[in-house]
Request: fold
Amino acid sequence: MNRHKCFLTLLFLCLFLPTLAPGEEAEEEEILAGTVIFTQLAGKYTYLQIKQEDKEVWLAAAAFEVAVGDKIEYMGGTPMVNFYAKAMDRTFDEILFLSNIRKAVDVQQEKKTEGAKLADIPDDNYHRNISPGQAAIVPPAPGEVVKAATELTIAELFMRRGELADQTVSMRGKVLKLSKNILGRTWVTLADGSGVAPDDKLLATTKQEVQIGETLAVTGIVRIDINLGSGYAYKVMLEEATFTR
Reply:
């Protein structure tokens, strides 16, 4: 497990200009938030300025869609001082390069959306990344997702996670939520109608493009007892997942 956590850390550091000064130590990461007051796509990056409490902060990340007024959440990052952005022809006194950033969802507004039904997703340490308001997709009912004889259910994955650790398995589930561009991957929340909350939803990481609401066959490597810090911990998840329609 330590080796797995080390891999994630190295992957994060390699994504965006890892130029920490000698002797500088990485601080414990926390989730920060702010409101976008300026954004511009330049080259392969999205540059944005956010209002964060009583200060304004410049951020940069791999190109993604964001607009003025959007609320965003981010974690970690590599600070750059006196950084010249050639694509913008501008020097920033300080800017934070990120790989873990997303648009936050206004839960109250989503609840008002006509016909929207929030997935019943628990808010605990094992499922905090799939808190209510992130998806308006109704989870499948028991028996709704028909699996092949060689596929496991989510309930089976949780019950047998010890014996299945580090093995490649197949299952089938409905995509409830996507979190893109986190540690270079898309994080996919799946449900198949099996299991008892909070162990009725499964997280899978992939580099494939999938769509919310699709029901797909999934093959991936079982990892257990994953703790990414800042409350992001999982009893079981699938890594290097591949999806088949």
Summary: The mean pLDDT is 78. Helices lie at 2-15, 107-112, 154-159, 161-164. The domain at 152-242 is CATH 2.40.50.140 (OB fold (Dihydrolipoamide Acetyltransferase, E2P)).
